[in-house]
Amino acid sequence: MHVFIAGATGAVGRSLVPLLVRHGHTVTGTTRSPAKAAELRALGAEAVVVDGLDRAGMIDAVAAAAPDAVVHQMTALGGEIDLRRFARSFAPTDRLRTEGTDHLLEAARRAGVERVVAQSFTGHQDARVGDWLRTEDDPWDPEPPAQLRDAVRAIGHLERAVTGAGGVALRYGGFYGPGSGMAPGAEQWELIRARKMPIVGDGGGVWSFTHVEDAAGSVLAALERWTPGEVYNVVDDDPAPVREWLPEAARIIGARPPRHLPRWVGRLLGEHVVVMMCELRGSSNAKAKARLGWEPLHPSWRDGLAQLARDERAARPVAA
Ligand SMILES: NC(=O)c1ccc[n+]([C@@H]2O[C@H](COP(=O)([O-])OP(=O)(O)OC[C@H]3O[C@@H](n4cnc5c(N)ncnc54)[C@H](OP(=O)(O)O)[C@@H]3O)[C@@H](O)[C@H]2O)c1
Asked: Whose CA is nearest to atom 40 of ligand 1?
């Protein structure tokens, strides 16, 4: 199969390109940077330099590649997230999830491509009542906190547009692994190491995690076992409340235990902080396992993070 990946140079893309090539597929990947185009070619892909917000450019790029499938992995979350101005940090990604999705779907339709797989997210949109583990069919939060509202709206747009066009949306959990924000040297890992990520309130919010290799594996599964118009949670087997995963992550990273902040202090940063720390729901991966035959290579973030920490120690120069 010839697969066109929009946003092929990110944390997921760098894992996905070689995986598809190993499985005998041909890949065309996009980037906005000529330097990264060379990196894509080194991974075995054809490279196209195009911006996902450039409608005509994307239509031309997909038409020229004439692929069998199109994959949307464009986000702009790689940099630092300003917790107080969460919505502002997410705004470029919201655009890629709305306008970027629309351009890509139009490009796919014009090129006669039926298989479209897009990156979505699970966690922020779930209603904050009832069970702590959610399926794809569970209701969304009718009133997300102000700083999450646009992001939830953009995710909703992406999922409706993609599944409405017969494509598949894959809802990932919090990413960790090489190239993501949760890896040695990256933002979240270093915040935990520096004890700058506190537990707010009872820390009862449940987070689901996804290793970037498993995110890539789910795209392969979705393309090969095609199920049009579906949404899948792609998360590991070990959803855990913040009060459990954050101290364990700190221990694995070799940091001191996280600090605690009362709920009212967290609220000074914004209601969304309290929601993410105390009210978030975890996600079930049962549907992806049953329908796509997908199994996480990293069933638990505990082992996945420990592996990253071991790799970091092994890479450290030995003192003379
Ligand atoms: N999911 C969440 O809610 C969340 C929250 C906080 C942090 N994060 C972090 O966000 C990252 C997400 O991983 P990821 O692989 O999705 O993202 P990523 O590593 O940031 O990669 C994003 C991809 O999108 C492309 N891209 C960005 N803007 C584009 C544009 N205007 N037009 C076309 N392509 C564009 C980039 O390509 P070029 O730059 O090469 O053009 C790149 O290939 C991880 O580091 C994760 O830890 C995620």
From this structure: 31
- Coil/strand/helix, residue 170: strand
* Structural domain span for residue 247: 2-314
Domain tally, the chain: 1
Cα(40)–Cα(95) distance, integer angstroms: 24
In a domain, 320, yes or no: no
Kindly give the number of the ligand 1 atom that is closest to the alpha carbon of 36.
Answer: 40
Residue closest via CA to ligand 1's atom 5 equals 77
- Within 6 A (CB) of ligand 1 lie 7-13, 31-33, 36, 51-53, 73-78, 81, 96, 119, 121, 175, 179-182
Is the pTM higher than 0.85? yes
Residue type, 95: R
Q: Which atom of ligand 1 is nearest to the CA of 180?
A: 45
Helical ranges in the chain per DSSP H: 11-22, 34-42, 55-65, 86-95, 101-110, 146-164, 187-193, 212-224, 242-253, 263-269, 271-274, 286-292, 301-315
Cα distance between residue 118 and residue 98, in whole Å: 12
Residue 296 lies in a domain: yes
C-alpha span between 205 and 163 (Å, rounded) = 29
Q: Is 184 part of a structural domain of the chain?
A: yes
- Confidence band of 320 (pLDDT split at 50, 70, 90): low
Q: If you search the block for the tokens 């599964």, which residue do you land on?
A: 221
Q: Is residue 232 part of a domain?
A: yes
**pLDDT for residue 191 is more than 60:** yes
Q: What is the CATH number of the domain that holds 81?
A: 3.40.50.720
35: confidence class by pLDDT, cuts 50, 70, 90: very high
Contact 104, 58 (CB under 8 A): yes
